[in-house]
Amino acid sequence: MQPSLPSSKVDQLGFLVPDLKIGVQHWTAALNVTDWRVYTYSPDMAGTRFSYRGQAGEFTMRLALANTVPQIELIQPIAGPSLYHDWIAQRGYGFHHVGFFVPSITDTVDEYRASGLEPAQTGSGYGVDGDGGFAYYEMEDQLGTVVEFIEVPANRRPSETL
Fold first, then answer.
1. For 140, which of 2, 68, 86, 149 is 20 to 30 Å away at the CA?
2. Beta carbons within 10 angstroms of residue 111's beta carbon
């Protein structure tokens, strides 16, 4: 049995998009939000560690985070394999996950692991100080979607331009 979710408050809604720039344009027009932070995550970033289905992860993605509540995250998969590529192959682009901010990604993964659940995909070390992490759990059978737990880094890297 899975542990309870850490909060009844959803912190993030994640969407997969084929083109990040166009996705940001559409969501900007829909929500009238212009404050977006953009990042590229890849295995060659200093200090980052990725996993995909229990193996070292080699995926690359570009993402944009809106200053909304809940936060809107747009993800453009660049290279895989990844959970994003799997989802797109099975379901196409669009809504992908609900996210919950947690104080420690390590503690959250350990708690789920103790319940017999392994993350499908993880990443860590993308903050300026080597902190920050995420873990995705495939919970489509139970909740109808993927759940992401997110340890927000204390200091993010500077935003890229679209």
1. 68
2. 17
DSSP 133: E
**What CATH number labels 12-151?**
3.10.180.10
pLDDT (0 to 100) of residue 1: 62
H or E segment at 140? helix 140-143
pTM over 0.90: yes
Q: What is the pLDDT of residues 39-78, one digit of tens each?
A: 999 988 878 999 999 999 999 999 999 999 999 999 999 9
- The C-alpha angle 81, 104, 142, rounded to 5 degrees, equals 60
Asked if 125 and 44 count as a contact pair (C-beta separation under 8 A), the reply is: no
Enumerate the domain spans of the chain: 12-151
CB distance 142 to 61 below 8 Å: no
| φ and ψ of 147, to 5 deg | -115, 130
Under 8 Å between Cβ of 145 and 37: no
Q: Residues 88-106: what's their mean pLDDT?
A: 97
